[in-house]
Every structure is written in C-alpha cells, then in structure tokens.
Design goal:
The chain is an alpha/beta fold. It has one domain: Alpha/Beta hydrolase fold, catalytic domain (Rossmann fold). Helices cover about 40% and strands about 20% of the residues. It is built from four helices and six strands. The strands form two sheets. It has a four-stranded parallel β-sheet with strand order 2-1-3-4, with helices on both faces. Strands 5-6 form a two-stranded antiparallel sheet. Helix 1 links the parallel strand 1 and strand 2. The model has no long low-confidence stretch (mean pLDDT about 95).
C-alpha cells in the first residue's frame, strides 16, 4: 500500500496529489494507492490514516507513505509506529509550534469548507511528534 497524505488545508486534488495518482495508475497499477481527504482535526485525521495502515497490515501489504507538509509529519509518525518507508515532501517538523498562527477560522479552497482551528488541535498534533527517526 502507498498512502499519500496531503498537508494542512490541502486535499487529494492538489497538483502534487493528482500527479502522484496519475503516475501510480499508469506505472504501478497493482499497488494499492490511497489518498484520502483528511478530516480537519489532527486526531480525526490520524484515526483515518491508521485505519488504512491497519487494513494494509491485515492484508499483509507492504507499507509506504508519501507525506507533504503536515502530511509529512503524519507520515513520519506512521512509518516509525507501524513500519514502512516514507517519502517526505517539505515536511512539517514541529507543526504544533506553528499552530498559534492558524488559530480560528480557516477555509480549505479544495473542499470549499470552513472550519475552526482550536487550541486543543495544537496538543492533538503534538501527540504524533516523532522526536527521533530510528530508520531514516
């Protein structure tokens, strides 16, 4: 399984995600490729991502991740927690340190959804911090 994880305020319809999906369909159609739309909260996003990972483990599929920005942060956590290889594109390293500047109303231009970034989201995202990459 290859799991593409988009960044904050992005979606599977970003240029990088679309290009990756097209490449995978053309060159690696036998690989289970997923690029879900992540929920707007870190905890809910990780619940969704771990469901994909655990399903792949149950199916005995190899694990691989591509993560962009906040998705890179999540991909690091998943690779260190569940195993597999990860490619990180401009990864967020400590996004919890940046959350204060995003507090309040947000608009996702891909999904056309309005939502709120709340103080508890900062601590939620900090729960997935990977302080040390053991298998670079």
């Amino acid at each position: 399984m290859l799991l593409y994880i988009h960044g904050f305020n992005s979606s599977p319809f970003s240029d990088k995600a679309v290009m990756t999906a097209k490449y995978m369909a053309r060159h690696h159609p036998s690989v289970a490729f997923h690029q879900p739309q992540l929920p707007n909260t870190p905890k809910a996003a990780m619940v969704l991502l771990t469901a994909y990972v655990e399903a792949a483990i149950d199916a005995k599929e190899p694990l691989a991740y591509i993560g962009s920005s906040l998705g890179g942060y999540f991909a690091s956590y998943l690779a260190e927690t569940y195993g597999g290889k990860a490619v990180l594109v401009n990864p967020a390293v400590k996004p919890f340190e940046l959350f204060d500047e995003f507090m309040g109303p947000q608009f996702n231009p891909y999904t056309e959804q309005y939502y709120l970034v709340l103080p508890e989201h900062k601590s939620e995202v900090a729960e997935f911090n990977t302080a040390v990459i053991r298998n670079p």
